Amino acid sequence: MLSLEFCEIKDEDVNEVIALWQACGLTRPWNDPYNDIAFARAKPTSTLLVGRDSQHEDGAILASVMVGHDGHRGWVYYLSVSPDHRAEGLGRQTMDAAENWQLSQGVWKMQLLVRGDNHAVLQFYDQLGYQPSSCKLMEKWIDPSKRGD
Questions:
Q1: DSSP string for residues in 46-62
Q2: How far is Cα 31 from Cα 144, in angstroms, rounded to an integer?
Q3: How many helices (H) and strands (E) does the chain have?
Q4: 114 with 95: CB under 8 angstroms?
Q5: Which of 59, 73, 75, 79 is deepest in the core (most CB within 10 A)?
Q6: Listed residue (23, 5, 36, 37) closest to 81, CA to CA
Q7: What 8-state DSSP symbol labels residue 58?
Q8: pLDDT digit string (tens) for 60-83?
Q9: Domains in the chain, start-ordered, CATH in brackets?
Q10: 15 in the Ramachandran plot: left (φ > 0), alpha (ψ -120 to 50) or beta?
Q11: How many CB atoms neighbour CB 70 within 10 A?
């Protein structure tokens, strides 16, 4: 099985990570990925982890995940695995890295959001032991100019 080595994103990784997100269909027109990465990196309670191919010298980034916490609950965003390497256990390795980062921060509960019609991703998280929450997500666009339709 392919094994990944995880570390925090570096400046020179940003374009490669965004290309990976685009290949995975994670970007949205109303969310500038450069801003999202910069915002996560600027805070002590969040980061972006990249998973590099440990078996090749070039160390290509094959996976990434943005993690953060609010002091109580951990969150995960932008989980991505190269489309060329799906179903090889890299998603599980990436979530393990995210969970380990959260534990290193003293966080013991992690949450995530998945679009309701994304059945394959819902099944993936179900296999990792994630369950639907009894809480109802509510939102308000406090800056309506940022809303994407």
A1: EEEEEEEETTSTT--EE
A2: 13
A3: 4, 5
A4: no
A5: 79
A6: 23
A7: T
A8: 899 999 999 998 899 999 999 999
A9: 4-146 (3.40.630.30)
A10: alpha
A11: 11
